[in-house]
Amino acid sequence: MSDALTAKHGRLHPISVAIREIADIFGRMGFGIAHGPELEDDFHNFTGLNIPPNHPARSMQDTFWVKGEKDRVLRTHTTSVSVRELERLAREGGTEMRAINPGKVFRNEATDMTHEAQFYQLDGFAVGPPGTVTLAHLKGTLLRFYREYLGSDVKIRFRPSFFGFTEPSVEVDVWFVPPEKDGRWLEMCGAGMFHPNVIHAAGLDPEKVQGFAFGGGVERLLMVKYGIPDIRLIHSGDVRFVYGFDEEKA
Amino acid sequence: MKVSRASLQKYFEKPLPSVEEIADAFTFHAFEIESVEGDVLDVKVLPNRAADCATEEGVATELSTILDTPLKNEPMQTVSDTKIRVSLERINDILGADFSRTDTEDVFRRLRFSVAMEDDAFLVAPPKERVDLTIPEDIAEEVGRVLGYDKISAIELPAIKGSPNQARYHGIERMKDQLIEQGFTEISTQSFTKKGDVTLANPLDKTRPALRKSLEENLNEALERSKQFAPLVLLPGERLKLFEVGTVFPKAGEYIELRMTERVAAWGDAAGTSDNLSVAKLEEYGKDYTPKRYKLGHYKAFSPYPFIVRDVALWVSKETIADEVEKIIHANAGELAQKIYLFDTFEKGDKKSLAFRMVLQSFERTLEDTEANVVYDKVVKALQSTNPLWQVRL
Questions:
Q1: pLDDT digits (tens, 9 = 90+) for B138-148
Q2: What 8-state DSSP symbol labels residue B296?
Q3: Which residues on chain A are in Cβ contact (under 8 Å) with B149?
Q4: Residue B220 falls within a domain, yes or no?
């Protein structure tokens, strides 16, 4: 058999392909990448995010709790990593920071074509002195991100929403035109301005530091961009999924 | 909460706009509308508004604010004891907007706030029912949503000093790039498993209540399963080699594991099949590295049904181009052919042997051998009639 017929390299999983592209786009806007544990304590997943015990926001996400340990949960969002990063900023005495935290999160909800109990979340935040990081900057950052990732004809819009850790809070819709199909508005992420209680809980002064936060599913982005019909294919360990795309080096 | 346009109309003198316009007003200024059926709106009242929007009257009052249309009977106004001090500058600093004093005061009027001035700041007393309003940020949100978030421009953040820190991430991705160069393919599997050191109090799947201690089991399972699909994804002679990078949860504490289905021969005898990336010097390893980037095409679904392989081998002249022969096979194999490729070629005297593989599969049913034979016969006939000098080896 001729050598030319043997494949030279394996394949990178589409989630990794996507996060590399996302990291690159945010990198150009000054965002670092932060990491944190998947098993979290109550403070970093909830209380530090202005979601105290019995708060209505806790019932909005079904949480996996660890047996025999009151304080440990599988993180329901990577906003837990943002709390850790804000704590680091407080220790270092800074007032400015930008980071994204792509990582696996867990929700105790029934699975179907668009829901999985475990998925990757793209969370991110930017903070700075008052007036320097605003809701308008959130819109500018997300618009640039979605345009670079999904295409230049993308539009975005905000709708009012409620999350314990942001005030104001918004839902972010993205106008996307799939190849050879009609454009439509898609709900892509939740976002808002950090609630002053979150800034305060991390050990920072809300009079001196304010900023925005956003979070959405990475799989949803992938499904939209590549036309993947069922989220359950992505973490199935099935190689046919990984090989289901024509691949070229960018 | 389900509420009809007709029932909302009872609270207003002026005729309300169409049900679609009411739905849009709620969507962009207050609450999501889950559905509209006839003239009935399903309003998803946000959890922080449960106190003032629990009743039809509460929802009508909200509609009066966002449409700026007076209620027939203004409710008896009871003002909250909470007074929120907020300046126009602070509101604009949060929103990144340039709203005027008039704009803002108009929003306060529509929200039925009672407002006094204290130095340069507003002293806002919301209606008693609005228990969700306690801090300046709450007032900024009210101004933003009532005026409309479409009034907020998109502004990019200014450039930041220095380059952002992505070193640790690049360290992990460098490990992956190394493995891909060695012919390994990355997979992603589930964190839940049958037995482990950490068990969930409320598992979703009762048969998998624990968190994985290692990636080994999932990886081996995936490899075993993938062997049957090898002809769909690989060329003959290639072997599937898989790896995964993921968090594992042994008793001693979670860490990020890298695991492969076999050793990397090129890495020497000391290299094993797994690594603890949490203790690796990832920042150092990644700080000057740029991960490789790939462009993927649109996803092509795979068929859940079994496939059948048929090989076609033929003698051709030395000058014949394999691609042209392959084109003829493509043109005649029909839509059952998922994959066609040259897998073997050699020369003998003035002749050349070409061997092509066809992977046949239906998206609707399990393929019969007889159907595969029909495709094969059609391809052979087409090759023979294209060039009588070509000899198909039957």
A1: 999 999 999 99
A2: E
A3: 135, 139, 157-160, 170
A4: yes
